[in-house]
Specification:
about 450 residues; alpha/beta; Rossmann fold; Serine Threonine Protein Phosphatase 5, Tetratricopeptide repeat; 3 domains; six-stranded parallel sheet; 19 helices; about 45% helix
């Protein structure tokens, strides 16, 4: 008898290389339907940059599949079952989704499929080590990064899966809907979408960037980061692919990059164990932390009009590119929470609305880390000075001048500590030294220190 076909439901794994779920599907059947569901629960909260990049990645995947990506719109518990039933599929294969909504959704879809006698098969995830797999010797989850990293490294991960577009016979889809029109982004320019673009960027970084990554990754004025975060967000490349290419290399730049990949996995693990931390403080003591509620101050921060050049450059980079350098993300987050005393959730929501690489676990838990209410011994007392941060990490002022045109005639590092305010560039909206004392008093009242 001929093998019954199967469905491969793509989600955060928009690639064909190193795809464990594709390999599992191919082992069950050589006839596979490639499916993507436009789920309003995920589409509607997405900002225009992330939506535009997603649609680009879907078009790139469809091209790799020879136009055989079936796209449907609606409730996955209905649409996935319908697509599987239409081709007489025996199973639906997926990469596990470990985020709170994805776990609830997948439980509903698996139940609906079981009622039709169709198997639900999860293989792999978006992470080298699937969240929940690494734990302390007593079985408890880690809440501090360094011991998690050691355990994560000891746990290890399999070699990349040997997969590609020719592994199976892709079924010609019927009943697809057209992808939505790409949202208008004005003058914003996004990275080239798709798996091939991700792999090209990675090869360029291995050749020209990894050697000095440990030194350059904190410099927003230099092209010192991988810029792979949007591709990791949508699974155009798997972290296991990257880690395999780094295996056995103990250079400082390589070790620093492995550490950054591990931070992504640590935050996903925290969210797996504590899904409520997507919205609530990890450290519940901080529920009592008083916050201001000034909408006008928040809007100045969003627009990059704080009067602190490194903060304003970061916020304007976000609006111009749908991305912000990681060092600057920490600086602008600290300014919102500890200089303006506004809720971290406001900033996290703004980031998720504008970031191409907006990832729930990384975004929310990084915000909590900066706010001091999160994991890793919560450095609540660490308050970034926006002037000294600019002078240290943008020493020539090139980053600020790139994104704050009012300051393009201010030479060198003087751009961070202005004597005069050119044009209509604003005065500092707050006094950092004073607000630092206010923040420490508030934190001290909560922590008892």
């Amino acid at each position: 008898m001929a093998q019954a076909p199967v469905v491969l439901w793509f989600r955060r794994d928009l690639r064909l290389g190193d795809h464990a779920a594709l390999l599992a599907a191919a082992k069950q059947s050589d006839r596979v339907l490639a499916l993507y569901v436009l789920d309003k629960a995920l589409i509607e909260p997405s900002g225009a940059p992330r939506m535009a990049f997603l649609l680009g990645c879907l078009r790139a995947l469809d091209e790799q599949l020879g136009g055989r990506l079936k796209v449907v719109e609606g409730d996955p518990a209905v649409e996935v079952v319908k697509a599987a039933h239409e081709i007489g599929a025996s199973a639906v294969h997926v990469s596990a989704d470990t985020a709170p909504y994805g776990r609830r959704r997948d439980a509903e879809v698996a139940k609906a499929l079981a009622e039709k006698g169709i198997d639900w098969v999860e293989t792999g995830s978006s992470y080298a080590v699937t969240p929940g797999r690494v734990s302390k010797p007593d079985g408890d989850p880690y809440r501090v990064f360094t011991p998690f990293r050691r355990a994560w490294g000891r746990h290890g991960w399999p070699r990349p899966a040997d997969t590609g577009p020719s592994l199976v016979d892709w079924i010609e889809p019927a009943g697809s809907v057209s992808l939505p029109k790409t949202p208008s982004l004005g003058e914003m320019t996004l990275p080239e979408p798709g798996e091939e673009a991700a792999l090209r960027l990675w090869e360029e970084f291995l050749t020209d960037g990894v050697e000095t990554y440990h030194e350059d990754r904190d410099r927003p004025d230099l092209p010192g980061t991988t810029r792979l975060s949007p591709y990791l967000r949508w699974g155009c490349v798997h972290p296991r692919t990257l880690l395999a290419d780094l295996a056995g290399d103990e250079r400082r730049g390589v070790d620093a990059l492995r550490g950054e990949l591990c931070w992504r996995e640590f935050h996903a693990d925290v969210l797996w164990h504590r899904p409520e931390t997507a919205r609530r403080n990890y450290d519940r003591r901080f529920d009592a932390m008083p916050c201001d509620t000034g909408k006008a101050a928040f809007e100045q921060w969003c627009a990059g009009r704080t009067g602190y050049p490194i903060v304003d450059a970061g916020m304007r980079q976000l609006l111009a590119e749908g991305w912000m350098h990681n060092r600057v993300r920490m600086v602008v987050a600290s300014f919102l929470v500890k200089d303006l005393h506004l809720p971290w959730r406001w900033g996290a929501r703004h980031f998720m609305r504008h970031l191409v690489d907006g990832d729930l676990a990384s975004n929310q838990l990084n915000w909590q880390w900066v706010a001091g209410c999160g994991t890793d011994a919560a450095p609540y007392f660490r308050i970034f000075n926006p002037i000294t941060q600019g002078e240290k990490f943008d020493p020539s002022g090139d980053y600020v001048r790139r994104y704050v045109p009012e300051l393009r005639d201010v030479p060198g590092k003087a751009v961070h500590k202005l004597r005069d305010r050119p044009g209509d560039y604003p005065e500092p909206m707050v006094d950092h030294a004073f607000e630092r004392r206010v923040a420490l008093e508030r934190y001290g009242a909560v922590t008892g220190r």
